[in-house]
Specification:
The structure holds two protein chains of two kinds.
Chain A lengths: L1 H17 L4 E5 H4 L1 H5 L4 E4 L3 E2 L6 H15 L3 E2 L2 H10 L14 H7 L3 E13 L4 E12 L5 E12 L9 H18 L2 H12 L19 E3 L2 E7 L3
Parallel strand pairs in A: 2-4, 2-5, 3-5, 7-9
Antiparallel strand pairs in A: 1-8, 5-6, 6-7
Chain B lengths: L1 H17 L12 H11 L2 H16 L12 H11 L3 H14 L4 H11 L1
Helix pairs in contact in B: 2-3, 3-4, 4-5, 5-6
The chains are: A alpha/beta, B mainly alpha.
Chain lengths: 233, 115
């Protein structure tokens, strides 16, 4: 009996250690039922809504969102082309559209999903080597005008440089200086890409992905997440 | 004996779950950086680099789908049109529709506006 208990405890521990993302008890189908009810094939990525002082954050996100969504198996409306249209029509501010009916986007772009991003925080810490990003992702269906996916959270991107300068006080100072330079030089595009990849990891797969529909039983991520990700230099 | 079997079954399942290899559907090269640089600077140099990046994505696809990702033909075509290469640009836009029929609604509007 004792041996049985030990065996089960070890097995449960292996399960717990093997999981590397924060997940809920909900499956993706339970968390995002509308994404599975009616096949949504194409996504229009809206220019991100930037609530930070980091002006470039909007472009960091806009240029890194289509790739993970394509990899999820969706048709993403050509981002450069759609951006040019938004700019020409003076519609580059997505804040104007987030609470409005989505059917106009369906008619013009042929999109099933309109994807909004709200950047709440973009903070670079030179000492300690990290970029903290607080962001919210909202996907709305143009068919039902409802939110079909919503996730928000804080991601700390660790950009620290390790093992430089040896030990002791001098080593620690060299390490600190190297980290400061590294953070200043870290391509922010890389940070935005890492943030999108992490946050959209539980976005249901689309028709071009072999796990379309079959991923419905996989666990969904937490609605609100907080995590630290190491960004390789 | 039975317990050992259960233990190994659970352990192996856990290992398989944690070691799932996520394969890429497409090959992207330096797409994000090239796009960001051009959008930010709008210089001829960055535009040429973005065009080179598009060409490479179109030519070298080793991802699971072995085809050009959504939007690439269209964005490349539109950039060509902006640089005065209208015919070649329109060809690329048509290729987008051919490869991804769901783009037809939008891309046909663009082609119509250009003509």
């Amino acid at each position: 009996m004792k041996q049985l208990k030990i065996t089960l405890v070890i097995a449960i521990c292996v399960f717990m250690i093997s999981g590397c993302t924060t997940t809920t008890n909900l499956t993706r189908k339970q968390a995002y039922p509308e994404m599975y009810r009616d096949p949504l094939l194409s996504i229009l990525v809206m220019p991100p809504i930037n609530k930070t002082n980091k002006v470039e954050a909007k472009e960091f996100f806009f240029t890194t969102l289509s790739q993970p969504l394509c990899e999820k198996g969706y048709y993403v409306i050509p981002p450069y082309l759609s951006m040019e249209i938004f700019k020409n029509e003076s519609a580059y501010d997505a804040d104007l559209f987030i609470d409005r009916p989505m059917d106009k986007f369906a008619n013009y772009f042929g999109a099933d999903i309109i994807f909004f991003t709200i950047i709440h925080r973009w903070e670079k810490m030179a000492v300690g080597g990290s970029i903290t990003i607080e962001v919210e992702y909202i996907a709305k269906s143009t068919k039902t005008n409802t939110i079909v996916y919503k996730r928000s959270g804080t991601l700390v991107l660790d950009t620290s440089v390790q093992n430089i300068g040896g030990g002791g006080l001098m080593g620690a100072l060299v390490q600190m200086a190297a980290t400061a330079i590294s953070t200043a030089a870290t391509p922010h595009v890389k940070a935005a890409r890492a943030c999108n990849l992490f946050a959209l990891s539980d976005f249901p797969s689309g028709k071009y992905n072999p796990s379309c529909i079959s991923d419905s039983t996989q666990q969904a991520g937490e609605k609100t997440f907080r995590a630290t990700v190491k960004v390789n230099q | 004996m039975k317990m050992k079997l259960i233990f190994w079954l659970i352990t192996l399942t856990a290992i398989f779950c944690s070691c799932t290899v996520s394969t890429q559907l497409y090959t992207w090269g330096d797409y994000s950086n090239a796009t960001y640089n051009f959008i930010k600077t709008r210089t001829d140099k960055d535009r040429d680099e973005l065009i080179t990046c598009y060409k490479k994505i179109i030519k070298d696809q080793s991802g699971e789908r072995k085809t050009v990702p959504p939007g690439i033909y269209a964005d490349y075509g539109y950039l060509l049109i902006q640089t005065g290469k209208s015919d070649e640009g329109k060809q690329m836009l048509s290729k987008e529709i051919e490869l991804y029929p769901e783009s037809k609604v939008f891309i046909e509007k663009i082609i119509k506006n250009i003509q």
